[in-house]
Amino acid sequence: MERKDILNLIIIFMFSVLLIGLLNLDILQGAKFRRQSDNNCIRLIPQSGARGNILDRNGQIIVDSKISYDVMILPQELKRIDQIIGRISRILGVEAKELKAAFRKNFISSSVPVTVATNIDVKKAILLGEYKVEEPSVMVQPKPLRHYPYGPLAVHVIGYLNQIDRWRLTKLEDYGYKTKDIVGFGGVEEKYDYYLRQEEGGLSVEVNHQGKFMRVLGFEAPRNGKDVQLTLDLKIQKIVEEKLAGRKGSIILMDPQTGEILAMASYPNFVPTVFVNNRAALISGLFNNPDAPLINRAISSSYPPASVFKLNVACAALELKKINLATSFLCQGSTMVGARRFSCWDVHGAEDIIQAIAHSCDVFFYKTGLLVGAQNIHDYASKLGLGRNVGFELPYETGGFIPSPLWRRINKFQNWFDGDTANLTIGQGDCLVTPLQAANMTAVFANGGYLLSPYIVKAVGGLDFSAKKKKLTRVNFKKSTFDILSKGLRKVVSDEKGTGNALSFLPVAVAGKTGTAQVSRGANHGWFVGFFPFDKPKFVICVFLENGGSGHAASVVTKQIIEDMNKEGLI
Amino acid sequence: MRNSFFRILVLALIIATIGVLSIYSSTFQKEGVWQGIYMRQALWLIIGLVCFFAISSFNYRKLWDANYFIYGVALFFLFLVFVLGIVRLGAQRWLKFAWFNFQPSEFAKLAIIIFLARYFSRKSADDTSLLSGKFGIFQGIILPFIFVAVPMFLIIEQPDLGSGMMLMLVFVSLLYLTNVRLRYIFILLVSLVLPLPFFWHFLRDYQKQRLLVFLNPNIDPLGAGYTVIQSRIAIGSGGFFGRGWLSGSQSQLYFLPESHTDFIFATFSEQWGFLGSCLLIFIYYLIIRQGFIIAQRTQDTFGRLLAYGISLLLGLQVFINIAMNMGLAPVVGLPLPLMSYGGSSVLATFIALGILVNIDRTRNVF
Fold first, then answer.
1. ipTM score above 0.85
2. β-strand partners of A106
3. In which residue ranges of chain B is pLDDT below 70?
4. Mean of the pLDDT values across residues A234-259?
5. In this complex, is the C-beta atom of B253 within 8 Å of any C-beta atom belonging to chain A?
6. In A77-185, which ranges are continuous DSSP H helix?
7. Are strands A228-230 and A54-55 parallel, antiparallel or unpaired?
8. Prior bond of A268 cis (ω within 30°)
9. Which of A170, B134, B175, B251 is most buried per CB count within 10 Å?
10. Which CATH code, of 3.40.50.720, 3.40.1190.10, 2.40.37.10, 3.90.1310.10, is assigned to A44-226?
């Protein structure tokens, strides 16, 4: 071959290399480079929709969102930033130093808008909008923020919003959650976050190599979250919180026929706006407060039920035929169980079951309890829904605890003594229930034998599923048992010496049971569980006052609540 | 005979027009002086055409006689650039004239090729056989190397490593095409390659960086590697059909630097995709092939070597430039002939093509 032919071949070879290179870039890797090209010049400016509202049972708004405005700057030309910030600071009436600090803190890169001020009001937003005409790199971005028209009302039911934490993120990543997302913490906000949360939309814009805005490529409207309708009645909730205010504790009102929670309050509470405004000092104050204001006492903490537990003991005794209506025990103020003396809170004399419930006679129940046996008491408590999760929708429900001989032997390698049984019968010792469980048990007596599964969310996005939520479980007790119990519960109020006599002067007939739990430290806990109107129960109420003194105090609170409800014609 | 004239003219015009359009597309969104830049290129194109017509009817044999003069003038301008570069303490490739910048190295490449063609086509006086077959190592390699090395050194010092290296490649190819013994060429290549590690120290920092970046563009994605990365994105994002006229985001939104000069191929390719780019490369190949055909049918050794030299010059520039656009070659400041913005390059290329056509036209004289 001649030299010129070889050279010719070399040239052909070189040009083939070019074609193969083109093939590689355009065809084999074309998609990748197209994506990189888009990444270069397309920026997304997110626009968030509003989070779903939370409504009460009548459709009234408990929590909604209101628009606030963020000011952002597209940092294209650094030289002009100072000038722009100066202008903005004059319009907003904020010091330029603050804006500059925010700018420095939030700056990511020259092509991403930097937020310099948040939550400005409409007037200033309009003023800035006018400025935007001459300075297009200033952006006013509407951002819906959680708005709490009633402040801390029902805050434990609703929960609060905050930036997603790492634990939640690992759990929720697969559902499209991202870092820095705002998600619900506690209550409905957490449990129904997926429905409540808005879908982000936004503008996609084309920028040049300096990040300078060129044109709008597309807009996807943000979508609002779905509304969640609760079973709460705003009016009742307001009354309840008003009466509870200042006392530690929890109040629950429930519909005994369906299990709808009409009101659920817990105190101390907090104002959820501190999380919206991200007030660090206030937030850390909430977390460090020994009174634990973030805890929903209605479901997330359990307490000794005290005399309220006697209802369970009475049921067990009647069902197991250990006692009947004719049985009576003599109360002399105390009784010996084994070698220990267990005292009653008063001297009651001879009492039958109805009187014993009305007067909350401890001696009667010590003796009854010993007849029934601890394991039976535990089993019946379980039938009435005590000491186990009620399966409530809100997160962080605790189960409470009912001790039993079996449990103690297995877990503690200890024997069970009669003294423990005596303690158990009056709901002391290791016995712990949540206020919601107490209310749920009371509902069984109010509706004549159905254990409910309480629920608080009625509808999501307009789709009512209360029919699905309503779940009644028949409690297989004899009718006579329920009759005796409800008679006893009524007596608590109607009897002159009944522990709940404070409620007897109300225009509505109330039945219920008080409880005073002794605690190792501090004042006694006060309980009142009951239902009204007696003939046709529409409400089950559970008032629990942590260190509130006594069951009497709880019944007084109950009285005030019923009075107010009556005044407003809610009964 | 008229055939090659028209073919080359049409092919060159197609490419030059594509070049003007690409320059327009890469600068139409810029403000100020950039707006009219494609007009200037169009003007250079017209001047280039005039030169093409003039040179094509100017007997190339006269270059034989003017050879030393041309070489001297080229050397003089290169030296002028070199001196001014020293005075200004910086990179200097241009000489500023009244309203344009004159880049002597573009013309010097041509001058060196003319000189080499002349050198290797000398005939002995007695039997009119080529002298180059009888050249020893001094006459065949060392002497022409010195003649090439002087302007090459001045060009590399500008600094324009790309043009310098390309001259060396053209030189070696021409040596190969003459009757110089392969052994000598081999010796030359070895003695050029061996001291390369030594030359590394003489490279400027940015040149070293470019070579390193060529090996791995990602070592400095926002600095030296930026251009290659953006250029590859531009070419690749074109896909098969391209993004369409004026719709290339890489070049039109200036992510791609030098989108109207050295990286004009990426600008073109982004808009016209695989299809357009293949076509463009093919047209370039056709021109070079035309040059080779002219060289092969020319009886005159001077004309043949000149035609080969010009074709190789064009082919190597096209190859190196497009390869560097695709990240297959290190980034060196080589324009894409006929397409890149720049009057000197357009003018030099048209003059070269004019000579080529004239060789074909006058070959029958002998």
1. yes
2. none
3. 1-2, 31-33, 85-92, 97-99, 124-129, 132-133, 216-224, 363-366
4. 92
5. yes
6. 78-92, 96-106, 122-134, 155-158, 166-172
7. parallel
8. yes
9. B251
10. 3.90.1310.10
The pLDDT tens digits of the residues spanning B300-322 come to: 888 999 999 999 999 999 999 99
Q: CA of A395, closest CA in chain B: separation in Å?
A: 48
Burial class (CB within 10 angstroms; exposed 0-12, middle 13-18, buried 19+) of A45: middle
- Determine whether the interchain pair A208/B315 forms a contact, defined as Cβ–Cβ distance below 8 Å: no
Please determine, for residue A80, whether its predicted confidence score (pLDDT) is greater than 50: yes
Asked if B236 is an interface residue toward chain A (Cβ–Cβ < 8 A), one would say: yes
User: Which residues of A fall within a CB distance of 8 Å from B269?
Assistant: 22, 26
Domain ranges in chain A are: 3-41, 44-226, 234-270+297-567
Model confidence at A12: pLDDT above 80:
yes
Question: Are the beta carbons of B281 and A214 separated by less than 8 Å?
Answer: no
* Per-residue pLDDT reduced to its tens digit, B65-93: 888 999 999 999 888 888 876 665 555 67
Read off φ and ψ for residue A165, nearest 5 degrees. -95, 175
Q: Which residue has the tokens 């939370």?
A: A54
* CA B46 from centroid of its chain's CA atoms: 20
Among A11, A208, A214, select the one facing B315 at the smallest CB separation: A11
Residues of B in contact with A14 (CB under 8 A): 315, 319
**Mean pLDDT along residues A63-92:** 80
CB of A16 less than 8 A from some CB of B: no
pLDDT given at position B1: 46
* Residue among B249, B256, B263 with most chain A CBs within 10 A, to mutate: B249
CB A512 within 8 A of CB A492: yes
The model's pTM: 0.64
Please give the class, per CATH, of domain A234-270+297-567. Answer: alpha beta
**C-beta of residue B20 within 8 angstroms of C-beta of residue B38:** yes
User: Cα separation of A294 and A282, whole Å?
Assistant: 12
What is d(CA B299, CA B288) in angstroms, rounded to the nearest whole number? 19
CB–CB of B269 and A37 under 8 A?
A: no
Rounded CA-CA distance A419/A336 in Å is 9
A214 shares contact with chain B (CB less than 8 Å): yes
In this structure, the number of other CB atoms found within 10 A of the CB of residue A277 comes to 13
CB contact under 8 A, B233 and A36: yes
Say which amino acid occupies A384.
Answer: L
Question: Is B295 in contact with A41 (Cβ distance < 8 A)?
Answer: no
Q: Which two tokens stand for residue B231?
A: 């250029």
Min Cα distance B138 → chain A (Å) is 22
**Which tens digit of pLDDT belongs to each residue from A366-404?**
999 999 999 999 999 999 999 888 888 898 999 999 999
Among A195-199, A201-205, A208-212, A360-364, top mean pLDDT goes to: A360-364
The pairing of strands A261-267 and A249-254 is: antiparallel
A41 to chain B: which residues are within 8 Å by CB?
249-250, 253, 255
Q: Which amino acid is present at A198?
A: Q
Q: Which residues of A touch B255 (CB under 8 A)?
A: 37, 40-41, 208-209
The closest alpha carbon to A94, from A71, A114, A60, belongs to: A71
Residue B301 DSSP one-character state:
H
A26 touching B, CB under 8 A? Answer: yes
How many angstroms separate the CA atoms of B226 and A108, rounded? 20
> What residues contact residue A146 under an 8 Å CB cut-off, 6+ apart?
A51, A63, A65, A161, A272, A273, A276
- Give the span between the Cα atoms of A110 and A74, in whole angstroms: 7
Show the tokens assigned to A100: 């500059």
Q: How many C-beta atoms surround the C-beta of residue B4 within 10 A?
A: 18
Greater confidence, B253 or A418? A418
Residues of A in contact with B221 (CB under 8 A): none
